């Protein structure tokens, strides 16, 4: 039986990924910071008779990652697939975000992946097989306010994944990057407006996300892609997922850097009109407040 270790499984993409692998017959090690809060998850595992074990692991902590992975490897030998999914989002203008927020994002989204990867690599390398799937984002290609700090962490993740793929392919270890677009998760719903910023971008993006989520893309779509990547013989590195992911990446690539800066720096009215013209979305926040 194949084994998979998945980080950040308390909700959203990580939770659905644990179910996808469990239903596909894998022995799943689902990790999260607070397993005591996973009663609904545990109930569903029982109902479906899935081979899913929930373990406590905080990817921000060297000792927590070591303790959890050492115990799993001691008990079960090899892990075939590692899914680095744990991630957090903080948003705001760069001037206004705290240094604590910047550090938290990088510690989870970038260093957390490195901690877990380093813990798994020795046994994968020794066994000459393995698959590491890192959950990045369209924000790994596109940097814009108010997601500058988040995008920086995902750009870093893209870069380290690309370098890692080069190092471990000779040992028959596959590395893949999954890049979701706007997915219907709590994280996407939390691009909220605080009303205090002197910069307009948080308010604009709250409207854009709300408009996009009117026709939501479920996290199960990403989970299915992650399972497909793990099962595939392809060595393809990057996998955009969701109806808007590839279009967003191509749209950004079609502009010069200067055009991109101008697009994000224009007045509110120009920006809302451009979003309507480019994507057919009405991102004006009041429209969505009226609908709910």
Account of the 3D structure:
The chain has about 290 residues and is α/β, with parallel strands linked by helices. It has one domain (about 5-190, about 215-245): 3-Layer(aba) Sandwich (Rossmann fold). It has helices at about 10-25, 40-50, 60-75, 100-125, 150-170, 185-190, 200-210, 220-230, 245-255, 255-265, 270-280, 285-290, and strands at about 5, 25-30, 50-55, 80-85, 130-135, 175-180, 240. Strands 3-2-1-4-5-6-7 form a 7-stranded parallel sheet, sandwiched between helices. Strand 2 (about 25-30), helix 2 (about 40-50) and strand 3 (about 50-55) form a beta-alpha-beta unit.
What's the count of strands?
Answer: 7
CATH topology: Rossmann fold
Low-confidence stretches: 287-292
N-to-C series of helices and strands: EHEHEHEHEHEHHHEHHHH
Radius of gyration from the alpha-carbon trace, in angstroms: 20 Å
Organism: Maribacter polysiphoniae
Protein name: SDR family oxidoreductase
GO molecular function: oxidoreductase activity
Keywords: Oxidoreductase
What features would you highlight for this structure?
292 residues, alpha/beta, Rossmann fold, 7-stranded parallel β-sheet, 7 strands, 13% strand, globular, disordered C terminus
List the helices and strands and how they pair.
Blueprint: E1 3-6, H1 12-23, E2 27-32, H2 39-48, E3 52-56, H3 62-76, E4 81-84, H4 99-127, E5 130-135, H5 148-168, E6 173-180, H6 186-189, H7 201-212, H8 219-231, E7 238-241, H9 245-253, H10 257-265, H11 268-279, H12 285-291
Parallel strand pairs: 1-2, 1-4, 2-3, 4-5, 5-6, 6-7
Pfam families: adh_short (PF00106)
Family: Belongs to the short-chain dehydrogenases/reductases (SDR) family.
GO molecular function, one term: oxidoreductase activity
């Amino acid at each position: 039986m194949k084994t998979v270790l998945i980080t950040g499984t308390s909700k959203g993409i990580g939770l659905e990924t644990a179910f996808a692998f469990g239903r596909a017959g894998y022995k799943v090690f689902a990790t999260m910071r607070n397993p005591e809060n996973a009663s609904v998850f545990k109930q569903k595992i029982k109902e479906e008779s899935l081979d899913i074990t929930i373990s406590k692991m905080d990817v921000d902590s060297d000792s927590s990652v070591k303790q959890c992975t050492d115990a799993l490897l001691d008990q079960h030998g090899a892990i075939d697939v590692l899914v680095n999914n744990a991630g957090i989002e903080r948003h705001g203008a760069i001037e206004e975000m705290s240094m604590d927020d910047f550090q938290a994002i990088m510690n989870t989204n970038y260093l957390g992946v490195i901690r877990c990867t380093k813990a798994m690599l020795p046994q994968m390398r020794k066994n000459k097989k393995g698959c590491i799937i890192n959950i990045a984002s369209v924000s790994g290609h596109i940097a814009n306010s108010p997601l500058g700090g988040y995008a920086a962490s995902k750009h870093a993740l893209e870069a380290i994944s690309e370098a890692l793929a080069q190092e471990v392919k000779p040992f028959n270890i596959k590395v893949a990057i999954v890049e979701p677009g706007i997915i219907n998760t709590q994280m996407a719903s939390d691009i909220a407006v605080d009303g205090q910023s002197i910069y307009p971008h948080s308010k604009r993006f709250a409207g854009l996300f709300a408009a996009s989520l009117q026709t939501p893309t479920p996290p199960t779509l990403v989970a299915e892609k992650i399972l497909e990547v793990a099962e595939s013989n392809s060595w393809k590195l990057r996998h955009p997922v969701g109806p808007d992911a590839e279009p967003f990446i191509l749209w950004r690539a079609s502009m010069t850097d200067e055009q991109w800066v101008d697009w994000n720096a224009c007045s509110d009215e120009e920006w809302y009109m451009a979003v309507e013209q480019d994507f057919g979305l009405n991102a004006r926040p009041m429209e969505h407040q009226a609908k709910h």
